[in-house]
Amino acid sequence: MTAPSPTYSGVIPPVVTPLTADGELDRPSLERVVGHLLDGGVNGLFALGSSGETAYLTPGRQDEVIKVITATAAGQVPVLVGAIETTTDRAAERARAAAALGADAVVATAPFYTRTHVTEIDRHFRDLAAAVDLPLLAYDVPVCVHSKLDPELLLPLAADGVLAGVKDSSGDDGSFRRLVIGARALPGFSVLTGHELVVDAMMLSGADGSVPGLGNVDPHGYVRLHEAAVRGDWATARAEQDRLVGLFDIVRAARPGTVSATAAGLGAFKTALMLLGVIATNVMSPPMRRLDAAETAAVAACLESAGLSPAR
Asked: Could you say which of 4, 84, 178, 281 is the most buried, measured as most Cβ atoms within 10 Å of its Cβ?
């Protein structure tokens, strides 16, 4: 008898949230982003993740984002929605809203701002899973929430049916490897890497897929990488990853000392999408700023170098 495949696999980009010049949700641009990703062959969409500026959006604007993405995807691929909040009750409220608006799964971090013990993180995920009748994935991003989700926490939650998967953006490759090894006994549990510069290595380790922010800019590249890895063509996967590492230099376009790492990365993704003709502006949520003309020119040069031609 063949073991069931992981529920979520392949390339599942964390969808950016385009804004208008006055900071409102740019619905037509968001629809184009979704179309761009679907045309690239992605296997799912992650709405309201870090690349979607979820921490900057009001609940009302978050709801708008979910509506646009689920309507535009129209069931072609699963839509995972972030319920990323400081505490359990707040995350449960966002998870229920996501479910009501058509989400296929919910993604949640550990609680943050408050000081949290591992027993409370365990209870957090169990309570969230009980609060909504959708699959729940954990999002391991200690740089933002200041708690690391170790395999010793995640694997028992998976074995108990609490978690359907994990997106690992910890950058802790040893922990990720231990998670993959432990997940072999849990068919159907999805292990996804958010470490977009080493997807080939993570796939070789046994990852089921990736959640790359840079996938907004070049979904075709990440899909080619994934497909090469699945068929065991590691030379092709490595070559594609090397090209994507070069493309990732767009995050260096912002002048040092003038923006946060978050704004440099998201600003670069939005600027690249603007140059490619997918979104109308590279406006960012305050207090972040958009990239200026000189920085935009640097992004354009990286696109050209990676074989992506800006729209004329």
From this structure: 84
Nearest-5° angle of CA 213, CA 217, CA 220? 100
CA–CA distance, 266 with 277 (Å, rounded to integer): 17
Segment 30-85, tens digit of pLDDT: 999 999 999 999 999 999 999 999 999 999 999 999 999 999 999 999 999 999 99
Q: What span, in angstroms and rounded, lies between the C-alpha atoms of 91 and 121?
A: 13
Name residue 297's amino acid: A
Helices marked H in the chain: 27-39, 59-73, 88-100, 118-131, 142-145, 151-159, 173-183, 199-205, 219-230, 234-247, 261-275, 293-305
Residues 6+ apart with CB under 8 A from 155: 179, 182, 183, 186
Dist. CA 99–CA 306, nearest whole Å? 38
DSSP 127: H
- Residue 10 gets the label, from left (phi > 0), alpha (psi -120 to 50) or beta, of left
Burial classification of residue 149, based on how many CB atoms lie within 10 Å of its CB (0-12 exposed, 13-18 middle, 19 or more buried): buried
- Pairs from 129-133 (Cβ < 8 Å, separation ≥ 24): 129/161, 129/162, 129/163, 131/92, 131/95, 131/96, 132/92, 132/95, 132/96, 132/98, 132/99, 132/106, 133/99
**Residue 188: burial class (beta carbons within 10 Å; 0-12, 13-18, 19+):** middle
Q: How many other C-beta atoms can be found within 10 angstroms of the C-beta atom of residue 86?
A: 15
Enumerate residues 6+ apart whose C-beta is below 8 A from 90: none
Distance of CA 69 to the CA centre of its chain: 14
Four-residue CA torsion sign, 264, 265, 266, 271: positive
Cα–Cα distance between 159 and 145 in angstroms, integer? 24
State the CB neighbour count (10 A cutoff) for residue 231: 10
Q: pLDDT tens digit string along 42-54?
A: 999 999 999 999 9
Cβ–Cβ < 8 Å for 244, 236: no
Tell me the Ramachandran region of residue 167: left when phi exceeds 0, alpha when psi lies from -120 to 50, beta otherwise. beta
